[in-house]
Amino acid sequence: MSRQPRPAVPSIDIEELVARREPGFSLEAPFYTHPDVYDLDLDAIFRKHWLFCAAEAEIPDPGDYVTIEIGATSVIIVRDDDESVYALHNVCRHRGSRIIEDACGSVGNLVCPYHQWTYRTDGSLIHAEATQEGFNRSQFGLKRINVRTVAGLIFVCLSDDPPADFDEVASKIEPYLTPFQLGGLKVAHQTDLVEEGNWKLVMENNRECLHCDAGHPELTSAYFPFLQSDVTEVPPRQQQLYERYLKALDRLAITGAAAGIPQRTYRELDNRATGFRITHFPLDGDGASFGWDGKQICKKLIGDIVDPAFGDMSLHYQPNSWFHFCSDHAVVFRALPVAPDKTIVRTTWLVHPDAVEGVDYDIPTLTEVWEATNTEDRRFVELAQRGATDPAYVPGPYATIEDDVNDFVSWYIKRLANHFGGGRDHLGLVAQAAVGN
C-alpha cells in the first residue's frame, strides 16, 4: 500500500494526554487522529510487543512463507527444512533491497532480485558474488526477528528485548488450544479488509458486543452478545436472551469437561505486558458453530473435538488479534495499522486438513457470518473515526458491559507510560491502575 505525504499538523504533548486519561472513558481525539500518536503507537506498541502474525497452517511445508508489514518494517515468516519457523527482516544485507514482494508463496532459498545474494530459509547467507577478500558470509545473514509458535499460532516481536511474560501467557493459553490441533489444519479462505479507522477503534469495536444485538443480525443468530461470563448488569432488552445464555453456559460446562478442555476463564487484559483473555462461550441454537442458529458448517470436526455442540473457545490478545475456535473450524483475526486513520484486518478460516470443499463445506456458508460481521464492523469503525475528527467529540463513558474495552484502553495507556520510562508513578497513573486492575 503506497504511503502518501502527510499534511503538516501542530505537534502535541502526548505524555500530558496519557497522564490525564480518565478511567472508564474513551480516549481523547488525538489518540485516534494525530500522526504523532500513530508514530508513537508503532514505536511503543507494535515494535515492542508480541504480535500475532499468522497461523502455522498458512506455511504448512518447508519453504512456505508469508510477508507481514508492521509500519515500515517488512517481515518474512518462513518454514525451514527442519520444520522450524523463522522470522526474518525482508532486507538484503548487500545494499538493502527488498527480497520478497509477494504476500505469500514458496521458495527453495531466499534470493535477492537485485544482485542475487542468496540465503537459506533460516536466513544464513550461502551465495554472494564478487565479494572482497576476507568476506565472512556468516556475518551477513538476514537479520532475525524474535518468533514464537503457540499451539499453531505464530507471534513475532521486533524488539531485541521482548516482554518477558510471553512464556507465562503461552503456558496458560496452550492447554485450551492444543486439542484443536491448529498446526495441522488447512486454510479454507482468507480475506483482507481495509477499515478507514484508527487501529484502536478497530480493537475497541471488537472488544465489546453491546452493538451486536442491533448491528450484527447474522452473528447473533448463533452468538450470544455477552463477552464476559460474569456479567452482572444486562440491558432490559437483552434480559430474556441472557437467561437463555445462562442455560447454554451450564450445558457447555458439561461438554467442555467431557472434551478435557480447561474450564477456567483467564482475564488478564490490562495487568501485564502481554494482555489476553480466554473464555469458553456457548453458542445459541444448536450450539455447534457460526452457522445460522448455531448450526455446524463443516462436516469434519477438528482436532480432538468429538461433540459438535462445543460452543466457541474465544481468545482476545493484546494488541492486535482475536480468535474463535469451534468444533468444526477456527477463525483467526489480525489487525495492523497502516495510517493514523486506516487499519487492515485479515480474517483466516481454518478447517480439518481432510475436509473437501464442496463436500464437507462450502466457502459461502463457512464465511457468511464473519464476512457480514466484518463489513458491518467496518462501517461502525469508520463512523467512530469520523466522529473522533469532529470538533464536538469529547470522551464518553463506557457502559457497564464494556469492561473489555476499558481494559484494552487501560492496557494501552499503561504501555505508553512504560514506554515513556517512568511507568504509572511518573505519569500520575497509580489511581488509574487501581481501577484497571
UniProtKB/TrEMBL annotation:
The keyword Iron is annotated on this UniProt entry: yes
Top-level lineage group: Bacteria
Pfam entry (one): Ring_hydroxyl_A
Organism of origin: Microlunatus phosphovorus (strain ATCC 700054 / DSM 10555 / JCM 9379 / NBRC 101784 / NCIMB 13414 / VKM Ac-1990 / NM-1)
Protein keywords: 2Fe-2S, Iron, Iron-sulfur, Metal-binding, Oxidoreductase
Gene Ontology MF term list: 2 iron, 2 sulfur cluster binding; iron ion binding; monooxygenase activity; oxidoreductase activity, acting on paired donors, with incorporation or reduction of molecular oxygen
Keyword Protein biosynthesis: no
Name of this chain's protein: Putative iron-sulfur protein
Cofactor(s) demanded: Fe cation
Annotated ranges, domain Rieske: 50-156
